[in-house]
Design goal:
Number of helices: 0
Structural class: mainly beta
Strand content: 25-35%
Distance between the termini: 31 Å
Largest sheet: 4 strands, antiparallel
Radius of gyration: 13 Å
Shape: globular
Helix content: under 10%
């Protein structure tokens, strides 16, 4: 959501998914919201009082691309969306 109350969906987040990705151990910050089912992590993680968004898995439809990387993608949503960190996971054959 922006300051004017309008919701937007960045193209970088379109087609995100965590299937077929073994996420890195300890890839999330210690203050990340606790996951209800850690074995099935949320695809999008954020806190209301932060401008950081974490995407777990593939971004931008990468699941369908053989050379796409999966893992923890860290995005800053300040004045414009910017990827600030990536911790690579491992692509697997089964979700």
């Amino acid at each position: 959501m922006t300051r004017n109350g309008k919701v937007f969906f960045p193209k970088e987040f379109a087609g995100t998914g965590s299937g077929f990705c073994e996420l890195p151990k300890n890839g999330l910050p210690s203050d990340a919201p606790k996951q209800e089912e850690p074995e099935y992590p949320d695809v999008v993680i954020f806190k209301a009082n932060s401008r950081m968004v974490v995407i777990n898995g593939f971004t931008g439809g990468g699941l369908n691309e053989d050379n796409a990387k999966c893992g923890n993608y860290f995005w800053w949503t300040g004045t414009k969306l910017k990827q600030v960190k990536f911790i690579e996971g491992k692509r697997v054959d089964n979700p």
